[in-house]
Structure formats: C-alpha cells, structure tokens
Amino acid sequence: MNVFVIGIGLIGGSMVLDIKKHYPEATIYGIDTNEQHLEKAIELGVVDKKATFNDIENADIVIVSIPVDVQLHIIPKVLDAVNDNTLVLDVGSTKEDICLALKEHPKRRNYLATHPIAGTEFSGPTAAHNGLFEKKTNIICEVEKTAFKLQEKALEIFSKLGMRIRYMDPKSHDKHIAYMSHLSHISSFMLGKTVIEKEKNERDIFDMAGSGFASTVRLAKSSPAMWAPIFEQNKTNVIETLDEYINNLQQFKELMKQNDFTEIYNEMESTNHIKQILNGIK
Fold this sequence. Notes:
Elements: E1 2-6, H1 10-22, E2 27-31, H2 35-44, E3 49-50, E4 61-64, H3 68-81, E5 87-90, H4 96-101, E6 111-116, E7 137-141, H5 148-160, E8 164-168, H6 170-198, H7 202-208, H8 211-217, H9 224-233, H10 235-257, H11 261-271, H12 274-280
Parallel strand pairs: 1-2, 1-4, 2-3, 4-5, 5-6, 7-8
Antiparallel strand pairs: 6-7
Helix pairs in contact: 6-10
C-alpha cells in the first residue's frame, strides 16, 4: 500500500505513523515544501521516502495535511493526478470552502472530507506521535459523494486508529467547530497578547504563570500559518461566536461593576455543568 502524506506535521505525521503500525506493508511517501521538515520526518521514521506530485499517480491513499487556504489549490491538483482507485482525504479544520471547490471536479468521488478532532499546540514532524487519534472524534462531511469502496477503505483505517466517526454537512461542521475550537484558539491568543502587553518582564510571566494560566494560554503556541487561514475561511461563523463571547464578557464586567457577586457565583455554578458534558464524551 502506497500512502502519500502532503504536509508532514502533527496530524498528517501522526496519521501515517499509526498507519505504519497497523499496516506494516505500507510505504509512506512524504511531500512537503519545507525540505528540513521532510528530512526530519525521514530521520524520525515518520515517512519512508521523499516524493513529488509526479509520483502521486502511484498512490493508494493521499492524506492532505496543509493549511486550509493552500489545500483549495492543492487538492484539485492531487485529484487530477490520482488513479480511479485512490482515496484522497484532507484533515482541515474547515470544510465548506473545500467541498464547494471540489463540487464539480471529475474525480470528486475519490475525495473524502474529514476533520479529526485531535490537535495540539505543536506542529512540524517532531510533533507526530503514535496513538494521537485513539478515542478521538473524526467528522466526515458529504460521505455520500465519495465512492463506496473508498469510504470502506477509509473507515477501516479510522477504525484501526481508534477514531469515533461523526457525519455532518460542511455548513453545520464549520458553524459548530467555530464554537468548539476556533473560539478557544482566539481566546488563547488574545489572553497571551494581553499578558505580554501588560507584563513586560518575561521573568515575571514565567514565575507567576500557574497551571490555570498555562492551560488557558496553551493554544496561543499554535501555528499562525495554520490558524489565520482557518479564521479567514470561517469568518462569518467566527464573528458570530465572538459577538456572543464578547457579550458574555461585557455582562460579566457589568456584574463586577455592580458588585453583584451573587449573580457571578450563580453564572459560574450554572456553567459548571460543562464538567458533566465533557466527562460524558471522554
């Protein structure tokens, strides 16, 4: 089995590591515009060989793990090159734009739109590791537009990697993910920005940063090259979530001004219900 991964970072790299574990006969080919990433991936055993787009005609599976703006141009190029039995999937955090871009492509049936909810703040080939997808949700969009035999191939792989599958249309996916992922990244980036601007002494930040601050600002270490295009593609939904979030922050601020700490307590107690929700999906 010839597996090509385009963009060798956390998601793509971890996926091919797990594929190698469950399919020892697989040969993993890497394509990356960053030559150092490619060399490192080979050194770490994430991929077996370098490849170019000219080699994709020999692929059984192509995993596209690149920024969502770039994939709008790359995935059509990949589909142009693959044979009729090749499965092409992406792992991007937005789905509506790419599904619209590929709607009329002659080889649309070869493509599966997926989004594994398994990211961390780390990037590059050194971030890749086995077991990343165990018990993680993988959202699949427009599954009915993918050839059935290729659906089966993908679902077999996802099952071996330990993923839970959720089906969703692209528009709903982008709306929900704006709340569940994109907003938390913006919050983390802006918290980090606020602290850096106010606390000029880096040593003070280091000395006083407790576990709460570290966990809240963790996502601010994420790659801007990946996240700025996500915010651009999901602009409408992200703005809607920001409006609601800012409104809640303003209400909290007003309660503080009014010394209404009883209501602040009530709001926090009500929000504690999130513990039961999150415990239920583990």
